[in-house]
Amino acid sequence: MSRKFSFTVPYTVPVEELHRALVDDAVWQERFAAADTATVELSHPEGPGSILLKMTETPGRDKVPGLVRKVLKSDLVLSRTDNWRPLEGEVAKGSFTGKTGGITTEMSGTYELRPTAEGSEIEVVGTVTVKVPLVGGAIEPLAEQLHQRVLNSERKFLEGWFAKN
User: Fold this and answer.
1) How far apart are CA 59 and CA 36, in angstroms?
2) DSSP bridge partners of 111
3) C-alpha dihedral, 53 to 58 to 63 to 65, nearest 10°
4) Residues 21-64 pLDDT 10s
5) DSSP class per residue in 16-39
6) Residues in CB range of 93: below 8 A, 6 or more apart
7) What is the Cα–Cα distance from 31 to 152, expressed in whole angstroms?
8) CA distances from residue 67 to 37, 76, 128 in whole angstroms, order as listed
9) How far apart are CA 95 and CA 101, in angstroms?
């Protein structure tokens, strides 16, 4: 079974500035510089104004919810790929996929970066599926919450980055 989700991540910076940061290699390299258990690969297959980010992280067992630890077959490895396309007018679209090793989880969806009166926001719409008998449905909301926490963490990083630059 799968679970659909949607949420928005608000930013206090204009769309053009946020998009420029989202497709900048240096921003992502700085973001992951201190992440001991994470890696990031960056490319621009759609040309200028776009980015393909492939991120992998192996969180410590203390960071993994108890319900998930009970069904893990090995270390939990989180993989996420984000693909941002060039800005068109005041809107940029993107997509994401995610999966885990150690437990069969798949996530996919879309991003839409657009302006707001306060700055901009990213609308996230997706689906998550956890293929674990009996408890998969209980883990799906945890996967959604994790994705939301990661994007809010990125928001805090980016707003701090804008404040410094």
Assistant:
1) 10
2) 94, 124
3) 90
4) 999 999 999 998 888 888 899 999 999 999 999 998 876 666 66
5) HHHHHHHT-HHHHHHHHTT-TTEE
6) 84, 85, 110, 111, 112, 113
7) 13
8) 22, 13, 17
9) 21
The C-alpha atoms of residue 113 and residue 125 are separated, in whole angstroms, by: 12
For 40, 78, 82, 97, 126, the CA distances from 103, given in Å and listed in that order, are 21, 10, 21, 16, 19
For 90-103, write each residue's pLDDT tens digit. Answer: 999 999 999 987 67
Distance (Å, whole) CA 72 – CA 64: 10
**Does this model's pTM top 0.70?**
yes
116 sits in which H/E element:
strand 105-116
What's 81-108 look like in SS3? EEEECCCECCEEEEEEEEEEECCCEEEE
